[in-house]
Write a structure and sequence with these properties.
Elements lengths: L4 H12 L5 H8 L3 H13 L19 E9 L4 H11 L5 E6 L6 E7 L2 H10 L7 E8 L13
Antiparallel strand pairs: 1-3, 1-4, 2-3
Length: about 150
């Protein structure tokens, strides 16, 4: 899908605040409300905009302990990869999972309350998944930058 300058500006505005009214967006883009509405619908239909979400303050919900967990499978066969990926989707503590190149096969982004909760997660849930050869956990000390924006 081709994105023109106005589409890109609209996307950036929505990424900063997706609750803006079409009227407010129209004033910023110098377009009619109808034109803005139609552009948004086009971006949604083309799956450029996949969904709208609320970003939660992790400290307010006791999930501010962030762990990056590196996973190495016993072997990288299709069966082992499929099994691991199917099981990892079931774990609510895992907010993101990436299949990566390098020393490890996967990197998980895990939010829990504290070290005790992470230990419980590791012992009862993560290591219960078949075909995991090893794990390596890295704990976040300070969040320097965290954004959902992809600047266009």
């Amino acid at each position: 899908m081709h994105l023109d300058f106005i589409d890109k500006k609209l996307i950036n505005l929505l990424q900063n605040d997706s609750k803006q009214t079409t009227k407010k967006l129209s004033l910023q883009l110098n377009l009619s409300v109808t034109a803005v509405y139609e552009r948004i619908k086009k971006l949604e239909k083309g799956e450029v905009i996949q969904k709208y979400v609320a970003i939660i303050n992790k400290h307010k919900i006791d999930k501010s302990f962030l762990v990056f967990c590196h996973i190495k499978l016993i072997q990288h066969s299709k069966e082992f990869v499929t099994t691991f990926e199917r099981e990892i989707l079931k774990l609510e503590e895992v907010s993101e999972c990436f299949h990566v190149s390098g020393e490890y096969d996967y990197i998980l982004k895990v939010y829990v309350k504290d070290m005790d909760e992470y230990r419980e997660f590791m012992v009862t849930k993560l290591t219960a998944i078949k075909h995991i050869g090893s794990t390596h956990s890295t704990f976040a000390i300070e969040e320097v930058k965290n954004t959902t924006l992809i600047n266009l």
